[in-house]
Amino acid sequence: MSRTSFISCLFAIxxxxxxxxxxxxxxxxxxxxxxxxxxxxxxxxxxxHPHKPPPPPPCESDDECVxxxxxxxxxxxxxxxxxxxxxxxxxxxxxADCPVAPEGLPPLSCHEGICVPPPPPPGGSCSAPPPPPPPPGxxxAPPPPPxx
Length: 148
Description:
By secondary structure, the protein is an alpha+beta fold. It has 2 helices and 4 strands. The longest helix is centred in the N-terminal third of the chain and has 22 residues. The protein starts with a helix and ends in a 32-residue tail after the last strand.
């Protein structure tokens, strides 16, 4: 997997985790008194899978991210997302600067100034498809199979 693909994958996952932290930091509430459906309706994510956080808040400048930044984050920046558009992502100088991930999700770590989750396991959903085989006759082409 190329470094760019790996970082894009980390960024996408980190964006989702950050968005979950933002949704979960919207204020105190008694979860024992509210169902998951009620919580999803309050946060505008009705119909979304309960374990899949929404995308990060959209933005066009770092200033727009101030109000969307989790309280335990060092800061937030408006960065380009792998699937297009921009989103507010926590910034960091070291792992301790990253906000605490929502319960059940892996901890965030500092990577190139932004908070991201750990890399996926080999062969995970973020792995890039294998490159196409080289054309026959090129130096990189594998030898033809032996004939029976």
